[in-house]
Amino acid sequence: MTILLTPFIALGRNVLSMLRQAGAITLFGLKALSGLVRPPFYAGVFIRTLIEVGFLSLPVVALTAIFSGAVIALQSYTGVSHYHAQNAIAGIVVIAVTRELGPVLAGLMVAGRVGASLSAQIGTMRVTNQIDALSTLSTDPMKYLVTPRLLAATVALPILVAIADILGVFGGFTVAVEKLKFSPAAYMNATIASLHTMDVVVGLVKAAIFGFLIALLGCYHGYHSKGGAEGVGAAATATVVSASILLLTFDYLLTDLFFTS
Predict the structure, then answer these.
(1) In this predicted model, what pLDDT tens digit does every residue of 229-249 receive, in sequence order?
(2) Average pLDDT score, the chain
């Protein structure tokens, strides 16, 4: 009987562990957010993180967006040409980029690049006792290390996604005009006709939530890392994996919320 119950016992333990960690991350995030309404605010940390998340991530996000838009145009042409609906390509590209690929791909790129970096930075401070040193200097580690980073990532990612949207549409336009021989004026008119404010706004809302989640998970895993260099590496890996999964989960939930009647 015990052998039969063992898989269910293990499953129950894993579920409880996940719920426990989800609760710990939620409390960690709420404590960090409370720092926004309590002085002081460390503007230097905020600006440095804003540059790291936004400006330094721009090249990889830009390249991803351009080639994604180009690939969507090619694949759409392959599919719709069978139904003689080539005029729909511009609409497919702009909707796919603004609703989904812009925020999701930018979020995944930032999670891989910045999430791991935040985790490694704070994790190194944890294992070298620098966080404890902050406490001895009467500096709240949460307010100094976590709160500015959460705010910076939440602000930076929508800016990145707005740029990614433009570049993604440009990538589709370039392929459609240069390779598929579309009329530039006709393609742009179809793009403008298919562009809706709601699509762009929802994409930017997704981006803000994704930025918050990436910074939250990076800071949480780094703040609670232990075991020296190996622990810091494990925290960085956990950040990338958990952030990627949460981004895709929240992407589905937000899409269902905004676009499902």
Answers:
(1) 888 888 899 999 999 999 999
(2) 87
Residue 10 has pLDDT above 80, yes or no: no
How far apart are alpha carbons 73 and 105 in whole angstroms?
Answer: 17
> What's the rounded mean pLDDT across residues 147-166?
93
CB 168, CB 69: distance < 8 Å? yes
- The H-assigned helical ranges of 179-227 are 184-194, 197-223
Q: What is the pTM of this model?
A: 0.89
Question: What would you measure as the largest C-alpha separation in the chain, in angstroms?
Answer: 72
* CA of residue 104 relative to chain centroid, distance: 6
Over residues 97-130, the pLDDT tens digits come to 998 888 999 999 999 888 889 999 999 988 888 8
Residue 123 C-alpha from the chain's centroid: 20
Residue 152's contacts (CB-CB under 8 Å, 6 or more residues apart) are: 45, 46, 47, 49, 50, 53, 54, 215
Within a domain: residue 46?
yes
Compute the distance between CA of residue 20 and CA of residue 223 in angstroms, rounded to an integer. Answer: 17
Rounded Cα–Cα distance for residues 240 and 218 (Å): 8
Full domain range(s) for residue 134: 41-259
Residue 21 lies in a domain: no
- Number of domains, the chain: 1
Q: How far apart, in whole angstroms, are the C-alpha atoms of residue 40 and residue 171?
A: 44
Structure tokens at 99: 């609703």
Secondary structure percentages of the chain, helix, strand, coil, to 5: 90, 0, 10
Q: Is residue 252 part of a domain?
A: yes
Structure tokens that stand for 9 in this block: 């016992």
194 belongs to a structural domain: yes
